[in-house]
Fold this protein.
Amino acid sequence: MYVIREALPRSFYPLAVLFSVAGLIGTLPMFQANQLTALVGQTVFDGAPPAWSGLATGLVLAVLVGVVIFGGLPRVAKVAVRSLPAMVAVYVTMTLYVVLTHITEVPALLWLTDWAIHLSPADPYAAPIKPFTAPSKSQSGITTK
């Protein structure tokens, strides 16, 4: 929002507000807690969670978040500093797992990317590729006095 508000003309201010509101709605923690509750129900209870499992998951999350938040900014910073490397390690590990378990499909994916970049003009299904040309002064709408 800051960049949109400061760098663009005043007429773009509603875009900055829209960006902020969309970011707020898209990152609400209740969606993440709901996903975690569903994940616990699917994995721990084999897809048939008892009625109390959602409440138990919510209470555990509330206690953990409360301990962090009520510990003040130093505790929030300490948790963030300690959890970030673990999050990176898990993300990279899971990415490598997905790629390695589908390693036979990687060459086809690379070929598809190569095909999309170098479309053959003889291919009847290929979209026409227009080379980029800079607009002339008369086409750009810029007038000089």
Summary: The CA atoms of residues 56 and 134 lie 62 Å apart. The mean pLDDT is 78. The two ends are 36 Å apart (CA to CA).
